[in-house]
Prior knowledge:
Layout: H1 8-12, E1 16-19, H2 29-38, E2 44-49, H3 61-70, E3 75-80, H4 88-94, E4 98-102, H5 109-118, E5 122-127, E6 145-149, H6 163-174, E7 180-184, H7 192-197, E8 202-205, H8 207-210, H9 215-226
Parallel strand pairs: 1-8, 2-3, 3-4, 4-5, 5-6, 6-7, 7-8
The structure holds D-xylitol-5-phosphate and zinc ion.
Amino acid sequence: xxxxSPLAHLANASPAxxxxxxxxxxxxxxxxxxxxxxxxxxxxxxxxxxxVFVPNFTYGMTIVAAMRxxxxxPIDVHLMMVHPERYVxxxxxxxxxxxxxxVEAVEDPRPVLAQIRxxxxxxxxxxxxxxxxxxxxxxxxxxxLVLVMSVxxxxxGQKFNPIALDKLKTLRMxxxxxxxxxxxxxxxxxxxxxxxxxxxxxxxxGSAIFGQSDYQKAVSQLVAAAMLPVNR
Length: 232
Ligand code: DX5
Ligand code: ZN
């Protein structure tokens, strides 16, 4: 993508805390967006699960479109589905700025990444903890974002898997500036510093925000913790 991707600026706002709306109060989505925006989040992470690629089912374009009406901040869509290539255009039309799919869900990620870029969205590629980096290496030149999962995709509230740290370190050395490095799963005030020092810039957070009554306090604690030195 000759011009910077619609998410590239988020890397400059590092540590960029992106709330994963999986655990939010969907009955009061507007209020949640208002509270999170007031807490200073630079964008939103939406988890789309199809009940096939992962043993859980969430939402689709309708919620993305609703979020688009509620915010002008970047919307980062995380597709945990089979055949993502069939739906990326609809997610783009619904208002997604970034569309990330799993390498485990496709034969060859390159045409899907190119398709997402051709729609003007940031093209993201995700891999689960047990998937080696070698599975994505041949497609890195077409990525605007790489998502390293620190839990097996499918549920919020899981424990951070440190296997993600070495992948982050390797990718940080490999990826050119402007390509966002994102981590997702079990990120909280105890795990965020290690992920930050391993090179992550975008931090997806679910239970460590929605488990708190004060979102502002939760977000600022995460930002502060991300900058702390890691005790070896
Ligand atoms: C899991 C999702 C994550 C999840 C994060 O498959 O991709 O975005 O909601 O939630 P926590 O921070 O609770 O692990
Ligand atoms: Zn996610």
